[in-house]
Amino acid sequence: MRAVEALIRWEHPERGLVSPVQFVPVAEQNGLIVELGAWILQTACARLGAWRAELGDRAPEQVSVNVSARQLARPDFAAGVAETLAVTGLPAGCLTIEVTETAVFEGGQAVTALHELRALGVRIALDDFGTGHSSLGLLQTVPVDTLKVDKSFVDRITEAGRHAVIAEALIQVSAGLGLTAVAEGVETAEQAAALYRLGYRLLQGYHYGRPVADPDFDLVRATVAAGGLKITPPAG
Ligand code: MN
Questions:
Q1: Cβ distance 223 to 208 under 8 Å?
Q2: So what's the pLDDT on residue 227?
C-alpha cells in the first residue's frame, strides 16, 4: 500500500450525505472551490502527518489531493501549498497534486503553478488520463510524475477484443517517459491481475477499499495479500 487519495464528502444536517457530484460543480461555478480546496489540502496534509506519527512505516507514503482548474489558475496557489506544508510539517515529497489534462491544456498560469509545485518537491499527477483534452505532447511540456489511467480503460479490460489496447499503450508511454502509472477504478481481482500482466504495479479502486473517513491500512494490506497479487515497488 503506497498512497491514499483525499475525497470530499458532505454530511448535511438535513439532507444527509450529499454526493460530491452534486456540490463540487456548484463550488467550482461560484468560486467556493478555492476555499474548499484549501481546506481539503490542509486536512489531507494534516491527516497524513498524523498517520506518519502514529503508524510509522505502516502509514501511506503519499497523499493525493485533487485540485480544480480554478484553484490552479490563481497566482498564489503554489505559495498556499508551500504554506500548508510548512504549517502541517508534511514533507513535500509526501504530497501529490492531481490535476486534469483539461486544467493544464491551455498552458498559462496553471502550468506555471505546476512548475512551482515541482520546485517545492511536490509530485504531480494527471488525473482521469485519456478522457480530457488528451495530448501526449502535454507529457513533454508540463512537469508530470504520474499518469492516472482513467477507469473507463479499466472497466472492460478482462473482456476479449480491443478493450485492453489503451491501457496497454498507456503503460508503455509511462514506462518510456519514466512516469509512474496508476490504474484507477479497479473493482475486481480479475481486473487487477490483467493490469498486473500489462505491467501496472500501482492500482486503486473498490477492489482495495472504498472511500472511508478512517481507513484501516492493515485491512487494505490484508486485502491485497488475499488477492494473491505480488505488488512490488517500481525499480528505483
Ligand atoms: Mn483523482
A1: yes
A2: 65
Residue 66 CA to ligand 1 center (angstroms) comes to 5
CA-to-CA distance for 93 and 120, rounded, in angstroms?
Answer: 9
Tell me how many degrees the CA angle 168-103-124 measures, rounded to the nearest 5: 60
| Domain covering 3-235 assigned CATH 3.40.50.170 in the classification | no
First-last CA distance in the chain? 17
Task: Report pLDDT digits (tens) over 84-140.
Answer: 999 999 999 999 999 999 888 888 999 999 999 999 999 999 999 988 887 888 898
Residues 202, 182 contacting (CB under 8 angstroms): yes
Sequence-distant (≥ 6) Cβ neighbours of residue 125 within 8 angstroms? 64, 96, 97, 98, 99, 144, 145, 146, 147, 148, 182
Distance from Cα 148 to the centre of ligand 1, integer Å: 8
* pTM for the full predicted model: 0.91
Cβ(48)–Cβ(59) below 8 Å? yes
Calculate how far, in angstroms, residue 159's C-alpha sits from the geometric centre of ligand 1: 25
Rounded to the nearest angstrom, the distance between the alpha carbon of 104 and the centre of ligand 1 is 15
Residue 173, amino acid: V
CA pair distance 158, 176, nearest whole angstrom = 24
Residue 96 C-alpha to ligand 1 middle, in angstroms?
10
pLDDT (tens digit, 9 = 90+) per residue, 13-32? 999 999 999 999 999 999 99
pLDDT tens-digit readout, 167-176: 999 999 999 9
- For residue 226, the CA-to-ligand 1 centroid distance in Å is 26
Query: How many A from CA of 211 to the centre of ligand 1?
Result: 12
